Amino acid sequence: MSQPRQSRALVIVNTDFCSSDGDVVFGTRRGAKREAEKLSSILSRLNYKVKLTHNKTAKEIEDLYQQECCCEHGEYFVSVISSHGKEGLIFGCDSEPVKLTRIFQILSSEKCLVLTKIPKIFFIQACRGTEFDQGVVVECDSGEPEPECEPDCFSGYLSIPPQTVVMFACSPGYVAFLNIFGSMFLQALLKVLEGEERHLALNRLMTRINWEVAFCCQARGTYEGCKEMPCFITNLLQEVFPFSA
Prior knowledge:
Blueprint: E1 7-13, H1 32-45, E2 48-54, H2 58-68, E3 77-82, E4 85-86, E5 89-91, E6 97-99, H3 100-106, E7 120-125, E8 129-131, E9 164-168, E10 173-174, E11 178-179, E12 182-183, H4 184-194, H5 202-216, E13 231-234
Parallel strand pairs: 1-2, 1-3, 3-7, 7-9, 8-10
Antiparallel strand pairs: 4-5, 5-6, 9-13, 11-12
Helix pairs in contact: 1-4, 4-5
């Protein structure tokens, strides 16, 4: 009996950025490489065939997604992008922008027949603006709040193709934090994938990540006390369990 095809995962992490004339444009993203390697390792343990890439230009990033259209895929396609960014785009290591809608278009059913019916799941660690989230004081007398409600904060213009889920590290307009130990968002994702929560349906798993970042993480040092609020957008029509290996 033939073995089922492995689900695929594409992990893109950019840490060093220069312009076409060699000038340093953005700061070095210390901690991002090690974090991406950990994610790649755990996705491999969850039976994904993982492709991990470092410091890719804008054109190379687009090419990586074009290549996925020629691969054999299993039940799911997962992609993690860790880079500098702005609302609606991320930057290649050449400091050139890549529109997220361009990536989604490459993997749409019109362009990529092999992924038409396969859930496509994106985790994007990048800033979406320059605002700092100061957080709010939450008062409750019922212990930890149940992380069951989906947030509805996302960019109205951001269209995604069918069977796609996108989870952002932060809300529109805000920065996403990263230090030498990693990012709030991807560290929370790692924690969930390493625990029993990985068996949850995807929308519940992402809501659990929201709770973890919102209630257990805050910035230190220069931005002492600042918070971060991930959010996600989905057009799946059914519950999926992509990490319940």
